[in-house]
Amino acid sequence: MESWTREHVPALTGVLSAVSLALVFGAALQVLPTGSLPAPEGLLAVIPHVNAVVSTLAIGTIAAGVAFARRGEYDRHRALMLVSLVLFAVFLVLYLYKVSIQGPAGFPAEGPAVVERFVYFPVLAIHILLAVICVPLLYYVLLLALTRPLAEVFDTQHKRVARVAASLWLVSFLLGNVVYLLLYVVY
User: Fold this and answer.
1) Which of 6, 60, 147, 171 has the most neighbouring CB atoms within 10 Å?
2) Closest by alpha carbon to 185, among 128, 126, 105?
C-alpha cells in the first residue's frame, strides 16, 4: 500500500482534497444528512470557543514546526506538524458538526454594517479561500513526508510546497481567529 501511495501522491492528493472539500461545502450548505446527529445546545454553543483555542494552539505548533525545520531538527518538525494536523482535524470535525446542524454563523445584527461589509466579509472570504487552497497543499506535503524516508523527502517538492502551505495555513488560522473575535467577542 505504501508503495502505491508513494507512486500516486498527486492523484491521492486530488481524491482526498475533493472528498474533504465536498464534506466542508456540504456541511456549510447544509446538504449533508444530519437528522441522526445529536444537537445539545450547550455543546453547539461552546464549539466556537473551543475552536478558537484549537486554532491558537495550531498557530503555535505550525510556527514551531517551521522553526525546527529551518534548524534541521526534522524529528521535532515532523512531530509538531503532525500535532498541527491533528489540531486541524479536531477543529474541522467540530466546525463541520456545528455548521451541518446550525448552518454558518452570520454577522450579529447589532454589529455595524460598515464593519460587516468592509472588515468581516473580506476577512472571512480570504480565510475561506486560504483554507480551501491549503487542503490539497497539506495533503500533498503530508503524503510526500509519510511515504518516504527522511533522506528521500529532500528529493521531492516537499520543502517548496510546504513553505507555501505553512504560510497560508498560518494566515488562514489567524484570520479564522479574527472572524471568531468579530463574531463572538467584539459583536
Assistant:
1) 147
2) 105
Indicate left, alpha or beta for 103 from its phi (over 0: left) and psi (-120 to 50: alpha). left
Backbone angles phi, psi at 24, to 5 degrees: -65, -50
Confirm if 69 and 77 have CB atoms less than 8 A apart: yes
> Which of 2-6, 95-99, 129-133 has the lowest average pLDDT?
2-6
> What's the structural domain count of the chain?
1
- The Cα 39–Cα 152 span in angstroms is 46
- CATH number of the domain within which 59 lies: 1.20.120
> Which three-class secondary structure state does DSSP give residue 171?
helix
Neighbours of 2 (CB within 10 A): 9
Contacts of 62 (CB under 8 A, 6+ apart): 80, 81, 84, 166, 169, 170, 173
Mean pLDDT of 84-101: 92
What burial letters (b/e) apply to 144-182, b meaning 16+ CB within 10 Å?
bbebbeeeebeebebeebbeebbebbbbbbbbbbbbbeb
What is the pTM for the complete model shown? Answer: 0.89
Residue 182 has what DSSP assignment? I
